[in-house]
Amino acid sequence: MFQMISRYHTDLLREMLEVFPVVAVVGPRQVGKSTLVTQPEIGETRDYLSLDDITLRSVAQSDPKAFLSDRGNMTIDEVQLAPGILREIKLLTDQHREAGRYLLTGSADLDHCAELSHVLAGRVGILRLPPLTFSECNRARGWEHGFTAESADGLDRVFEHEPAKPFDGERLFQGGFPLSLNAGSDRARQLWFESFQLTYLERDLRRISDISNLADFHRLMQISAANTGTLLNQAHLGRDAGLNPVTTGRYLSVLEASLLIQRIPPFFSNIGKRFVKAPKLFWTDTGIAAHLAGFSTAEALWNYPMARGRWFESFVMMEIQSLLPLLPFPARLYHVRTREGLEVDGLLEGGRRHRLFEIKATRTPRPEDAEPMERWIRMNPGHGPGMIIHGGDSYRRLSEHVRAIPATLLFGSSEK
Questions:
Q1: Is the distance from CB of 346 to CB of 314 less than 8 angstroms?
Q2: Residues 269 and 276: beta-carbon distance below 8 Å
Q3: pLDDT tens by residue, 250-286
Q4: Which residue of 17, 92, 129, 307 is 20 to 30 Å from 230, comparing CA positions?
Q5: CATH architecture type of domain 9-128
């Protein structure tokens, strides 16, 4: 039975509708955009029109003014299918600027997002909808305390005596797309991944890009998925895929604009010349990435020693990235790597602090695992606290400023 999971982004969408005359929800196909905008607390007072309906799409394309006239607040689904209506929305918004008048959904791609930003500049708020997070699936809010704590003592007060369970690698294999999470079997999930991949390659790409050689593009998808969680070396990726640097860069940009990959930038400070300046590459959904990389079961993925840590890091980093817009302050996510060998998986810049975290798939973090963050804090007074987010079930004090916290405790119990 399909299980409906409430999105944390509902509250954010409601806030945006109270500020912007136009709000656009963008995201990959089947991530839940239509479900979000039609739930009662958002859609009950709005006219809903889907441009998947060929008759409505024909009117929108041939006569945008008639399509938009004599209506109240509108929700227009799949607006990228009739991009010409954006200019008419701009004109109507300029004549009557009212918050929440137009709610749009569309696929996340380079051309569509650029058109939204260009035509509706100053009028549109864009909500990028990620796959479902582990926290949403577990209806948990522990991450709010973890990423707003001002000190290690603050983490202790919230988490120290809370029970937790070990992380289940099944979640990496499932990913966060609703139809994958609700699949009744591994075989059903495999069929959905294959359908998603085929539809993206055969339909979406032909609409959003001039990519002619789908086999080359598919090969880059597979190789980049297998390298999730690594420092991005575009030249090496291209060489492995048999592509020149220009084509490799363009293909990666298409994947990024489609919200299928994310490049986490390095953190720079006053000693920026000593920092490695390459971003880290992550697939936003570990389920899709696992399918592309050739894993057929959760056990094969979780028990693969050469990749387990990277896949767990990808899961945690993308969980955090997805939750950033929901924090009570603007926040950005970085990684730290210096040429002297100091590495910290994540630095969260926001509020009054720079919070640090390492990601370890192990169930038993050691005190020495805290040393890179302690070194960074000594170099940068005022940064911290630090967390080692791990796959085990125990919260521990590892050092003065660093605590080990189970992923299931930070992002929610593994049982509902």
A1: no
A2: no
A3: 999 989 988 899 999 999 765 445 667 899 999 999 9
A4: 129
A5: 3-Layer(aba) Sandwich (3.40)
